[in-house]
Queue: 2 jobs
Job 1
Amino acid sequence: SQQGEEDPQALSIQEGENATMNCSYKTSINNLQWYRQNSGRGLVHLILIRSNEREKHSGRLRVTLDTSKKSSSLLITASRAADTASYFCATDTGTASKLTFGTGTRLQVTL
Amino acid sequence: DSGVTQTPKHLITATGQRVTLRCSPRSGDLSVYWYQQSLDQGLQFLIHYYNGEERAKGNILERFSAQQFPDLHSELNLSSLELGDSALYFCASSVGVAPNYGYTFGSGTRLTVV
């Protein structure tokens, strides 16, 4: 079963634009993580935000977390063609000894 | 290279057969997680081992089994294969028993059942 659902399912933007992806989840979490997956390859961990944090930055990435709305967003600023990938949120409830992944957003960045 | 090694990268086999997928975690990581990724089901958690012990089980079919060995590598055994088992199988590792520092994923094994 999916804990998180990403929105939109697919996003197409031009290089230099910002990309925003949203994730909603159902149960209380210990932390929420974002991963990137290039086509058919392994997922790469991007950033982790804990339940007591509201915003976190890493390079061109900005993640926000609103635990009252059970939602998170990932902003990629100044997108590049190399950012083309699928992006997944994953939640750690702190009790289940695993991450539960969302459905993913496919991002296409064109030149 | 993430440090997590999965073999083989590709596997084509017939229905009814049995296969073994192998995973070596990143050096120092004690946890190994197995996930199945298919187009219709997304990333589904199968099973988690920590330092040789099973810690959590997901929607893993009875035809599937796994273990983690003393050297911490893990194997996922899939038997009586069906067409619907065709998918990407990923293993991921993490340092502790809880995934609160993130996973490191392998590059996956693409299983095709014909």
Job 2
Amino acid sequence: QKEVEQDPGPLSVPEGAIVSLNCTYSNSAFQYFMWYRQYSRKGPELLMYTYSSGNKEDGRFTAQVDKSSKYISLFIRDSQPSDSATYLCAMTSGFQGAQKLVFGQGTRLTINP
Amino acid sequence: EAQVTQNPRYLITVTGKKLTVTCSQNMNHEYMSWYRQDPGLGLRQIYYSMNVEVTDKGDVPEGYKVSRKEKRNFPLILESPSPNQTSLYFCATHKTRTGELFFGEGSRLTVL
């Protein structure tokens, strides 16, 4: 079993829809959770970062963490064609020492105009 | 502008021909790492370095070498490439306080 599971999609939705992207994990030591966005032919870039259970909002994006269920989500409201990308969840137990980040395999999202 | 620069961006080579992928950063980060990205497997860490002359294996180090002689540079060396090393490679630096990774634009390597 992988430490982090993410549905690879692909996911295709119309412009303006609410998008929900999800990851589950098995390691209860994970404390910090991130979402990266990767455009085609580019490196991933950090989109959202959180370290506690609950919701964190940034514009049209909301990151949700449920540590009891070992489940994290990213919601995109009023989705735009420019949101079309691969979204990767990532998590780690801490930022000291090896600082190892474990990634999901990524979900490819397409927003259709 | 904060940058992680990788070269080459694209490379086709043959089995056994040694190659080096360079990585340079201008953010003065101590922590750097190399990842490979494969369909269905996501990003997997190959090697990482916590500082100059300090390197360690990640999850998939077999067939790779690294060195960290200067803070800004972290080259990835494939001494004898094989077809299973055909992949998309990313160099990244790591911002210690927040855990944010800054990735280069990737190097697509094909080994025939």
